[in-house]
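Field reference: "sequence" (input) and "structure" (output). Example, UDP-N-acetylmuramoylalanine--D-glutamate ligase:
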Amino acid sequence: MKTIEQFKNKKVLVLGLARSGESAARLLAKLGAIVTVNDGKPFEENPAAQKLLEDGIKVICGSHPLELLDENFELMVKNPGIPYSNPMVERAIEKGIPVWTEVELAYLISEAPIVAITGSNGKTTTTTMIAEVLNAAGRKALLSGNIGFPASEVAQTAQAEDTLVMELSSFQLMGVDAFKPHIAVITNLMPTHIDYHGDFEGYVAAKWNLQNYMTADDYLILNVNQDLAKELAQKTQATVVPFSTEEVVDGAYLQDGLLYFKGEAIMEADEIGVPGSHNVENALATIAVAKLSGLPNESIRETLSSFGGVKHRLQKVGDLDGVTFYNDSKSTNILATQKALSGFDNSKVILIAGGLDRGNEFDELVPDITGLKKMVILGQSAERVKRAADKAGVTYVDAKDVADATRLAFELAEAGDVVLLSPANASWDMYANFEVRGDEFIATYESLKG
């Protein structure tokens, strides 16, 4: 970790704890800052705050008193999930106090070059692919950021010969200042998190902060299947490396079933270890990073061929009696399920779908489910999903939960078929989150196998 002096004896307020806030507070204290932590959770219910206090860091819990900001803080580091409409954040901005997220701290102390990945869809899978490709080639890649490992914690152990591979959300990128990755990827940009950013333009602007300080010596990898990316490519100082599944570009692209980088064939698209057209895009972005990092083609091909996906994101769980099980519990909306189905022959798929009823119909899904072997339908939204199945001419059975659905789907399947959990719905009618739902699918597969 770099030794930096800029925080020495400076008063810094860390707003919001969780793991990233605790990491930021500890790092700032290590760098000589005078740190105060403010978290809404009461102190007696807040083990992280208790431990920080034991270690000599000031904590104020249970509320967010605005008068706290009269203490001449020179910096606020906030939890990414706290919106800028929060009164504490608004008051800090009024007072001219810089408001950062902890990824800026990670950048300032990291000895390792940074590969940063953002986007609306596919960023976790792409981040994981990139790390696995780098590690397989003997380059030590350290995962961090939105993927679950606070960047300011991981960066402290990164060596100059390592690579810090960071997944970044728009929330995190709103709070960067001088942040500068050596290689950056934007997987795609779709309207999302509008409640946080106000409009799509605000969301795109947050993502675009990724490249603010990049130069011609740095590489920005963009998905030029989107016209928006083509427009943005004209507005950066970075060297743009495009990728596309629709046209030949001066970067990574799909042509006649092969994945290329600058005219050089790397591998067949069908060799990618996870199905779906979206995963071809993810693999192309990964190939671009790998080739810019000087990795050999064979290592890239072998790693992407054996890639099993990210847990709950079109994750191959295993095979049983010739039937393959895929866990795509993260598919909490129609678009995600459409993408999942794009990687399979519908006539071989038993789809498990349904969940929280948000009041929407599933007509958009009809073309994508047409031709399915069978559906197993569950949850509050079951009647709405059944209407779409009827329109698509797909027969279905009812299930009471994911465990029941998985067993029913396996009974309906034959060798060569796929059992796909891709619900197109949130999980909250039955499960605390999509991870719990996916874990039940995996556990049921294991019990069937056992």
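The radius of gyration is 23 Å.
The mean pLDDT is 96.
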